[in-house]
UniProtKB/TrEMBL annotation:
Xref: Gene3D superfamilies: 3.40.50.880
Pfam families: Peptidase_C26 (PF07722)
Protein name (Swiss-Prot/TrEMBL): Gamma-glutamyl-gamma-aminobutyrate hydrolase
Transmembrane segments: none
GO CC term, one of those recorded: cytosol
Entry's Gene Ontology BP terms: polyamine catabolic process
Highest rank taxon of the organism: Bacteria
A molecular function GO annotation: gamma-glutamyl-gamma-aminobutyrate hydrolase activity
InterPro entries: Class_I_gatase-like, Peptidase_C26, PuuD-like
Protein keywords: Glutamine amidotransferase, Hydrolase, Transferase
Length: 233
């Protein structure tokens, strides 16, 4: 049977909860069964989510409320929704206890870091001296933006090799790492582009958007395929 992949709601708009279609299609084409998991205020529902799914995908989205990682809001902070933040953090912590595979993309990677006790740079341009541009303005979201160097011996390196070119749509980044997390990829300005939870079979966060490159990049297809393979075990 194909593994069931819980895709956690990306965000809220008016009276709607949404997941961008590219995430759903990437899971489908990688031979997983996508199951959308909406925001709920229920411990029982969170446990049901954990038992229903073989793996979990956390998607991109808006900024995380800084108070949730012990910081006051700083210049450059974007739109936040503390209700969504708390839901995703609680669910992610519950998922980590199951040891089921987890792929966390962009904001999802930042949620993973905060869930493990880490902090974020609230805005790269106001936090670092002379960073490269991490918010590309390209004709298509599938276009590459910068080079990412990958650490040897990581899960990510077994998929991508020592480096790859990615797109980039983020103005926040990992600052201090959460407990048990290791940085496994960086850009030339030192920004952490991937993290892994060392004591977990497959808990990988990437800062770029592989779902947007799925149709054009064999490497991004390999990333999703490796995630789905881990979910079958």
């Amino acid at each position: 049977m194909k593994p069931v992949i819980g895709i956690i709601v990306c965000g809220l708009m008016d009276d709607r909860q949404f997941v961008t279609n590219a995430y759903i299609q990437s899971i489908k084409y990688a031979k997983g069964v996508p199951l959308l998991l909406p925001l709920v205020r229920s411990d029982e529902a969170l446990q049901t989510y954990c038992s229903l799914c073989d793996g979990f995908l956390f998607c991109g989205g808006n900024d995380i409320t800084p108070l949730l990682f012990g910081k006051e809001p700083a210049k450059g902070l974007g739109t936040t929704n503390i209700t969504l933040d708390i839901f995703q953090l609680r669910l992610l912590r519950a998922i980590l206890k199951t040891k089921n595979p987890l792929l966390a993309i962009c904001r999802g990677m930042q949620v993973l870091n905060v869930a493990c006790g880490g902090t974020l740079l609230q805005d790269i341009d106001t936090s670092l001296h002379a960073p490269i541009n991490h918010m590309q303005l390209s004709a298509s979201r599938s276009e590459i933006s910068h080079k990412v160097l990958v650490a040897k011996g990581s899960i990510l390196s077994s998929i991508t090799g020592s480096s790859l070119y990615t797109n980039s749509f983020h103005h926040q980044a990992v600052d201090s790492l959460g407990k048990g997390l290791v940085p496994t990829a960086r850009t030339s300005d030192g920004i952490i582009e991937a993290i892994e939870l060392s004591a977990h079979p497959f808990a990988l966060g990437v800062q770029w958007h592989p779902e947007c490159m799925y149709r054009t990049s064999p490497v991004m297809r390999d990333l999703f395929a490796s995630f789905i393979t881990a979910c079958r075990k």
